[in-house]
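Render this sequence as a predicted structure.
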Amino acid sequence: MRMFTQQDVASKILFEFKQADEHMISHELHQFLLEKEYPWLVLGAPLLKFVENCIFKVPQDERIKGAVARGTYIEHTDKIVIGEGAVVEPGAYITGPAFIESHAVIRHGAYLRGPVYISKYAIVGHATECKGSIFLPHAKAAHMNYVGDSILGYDCNLGAGTKLANLKLKHDNIMLYFGNTKIDSGLRKFGSIVGNRVNIGCNAVANPGSIFLPDSTLHPNKTALGIIAKDEHIS
């Protein structure tokens, strides 16, 4: 069982984020993700400011270009962008600030609470709640998921019923453990960093501050804690 340092984890995640063209990450999001030394530092207030800035750059009359079905509930329309080719199904509830790129899909009964950034071809599925989070292209939370204060990487998949918990029972800051080193994330609400191509099985739960390195797997009905790497579980 390998012990990961803070720098190991950051390099593995950030190296993948740097492949912006291959993973279809927008230029603005790419630059934002690389602003901080560690990916969890973009969550919270920095994400709110980033999403608001992205929205501000889009003219007011061009902010809703996608196919928004009748029966969709949208609050604060001046703080929401829905790109051309995106689909929002009936019964979805979106409250800004929210930036939804082209060809993203927001399915029936989804609940988006800003700030959220949903990249192209990502899916926020039926009965899925997404709050304070980033979805990279092709990230999928398709069925009855909770995604709180998290980053979902390129082409990752959350199985039905997966929950990314973002708040400790004691409501104190989320601590991260790297080998024998304990790091204060500085965040009271921090869900998970889910790397590219990660697969999480149905009804799994990720404890606050869980980090899934690229290509790792969490099996159905399991609970994640700490750093999850391909073929090994480090906690």
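Summary. The chain has a mean pLDDT of 92. The first helix runs from residue 6 to 17.
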